[in-house]
Design a protein that fits this description.
Ferritin; single chain
Length: about 150
């Protein structure tokens, strides 16, 4: 049951965020001047779905760990905070059309992911490593966000 809950939480965050993202892809986002390395729009859904599944497995590994509850609670609060920021980036960027503020927010998101990785590593190394693709993708998204902000 913990695994199912752990998978559903990030997938629900992503699904909810998509309500703010999807309508803007063909409208506002398609009109933006984007950097040459901007991937095609269809790539984002499978990448994010994969990342949310990896995040869920990482959460589950921490949650089921026999490490002290205090360490697990701290790690899971950091995890929840980065998920909160993950959701709000979509709202700020896509719904409010604010790439500059989204850039500020994604920097804070990146820092919170890094702190979550360090916190997870104290509990379960595999859980920490499962978040590495996520921080790599967010690093790419940060560069892309910056490029969009500068060009628009």
């Amino acid at each position: 049951m913990k695994l199912i809950i752990s998978l559903l939480i990030p997938l629900a965050v992503g699904f909810t965020g998509s309500f703010f993202t999807t309508p803007e892809i063909g409208n506002w986002y398609s009109t933006l001047n984007k950097p040459w390395f901007n991937p095609p729009s269809w790539i984002f859904a499978p990448v994010w779905t994969t990342l949310y599944v990896l995040m869920g497995i990482a959460m589950w590994l921490v949650w089921k760990s026999d490490k002290p509850e205090r360490a697990k609670q701290r790690a899971l609060w950091l995890y929840a905070f980065q998920l909160f920021l993950n959701f709000w980036w979509s709202v700020i960027f896509f719904h409010f059309h604010q790439p500059g503020w989204a850039l500020v927010e994604i920097i804070v998101l990146w820092i919170s992911i890094l702190l979550t990785i360090f916190s997870f590593a104290k509990i379960d190394k595999t859980a920490a490593w499962l978040l590495v693709p996520y921080i790599c993708w967010v690093s790419f998204a940060m560069v892309l966000n910056h490029g969009i902000w500068v060009r628009n």
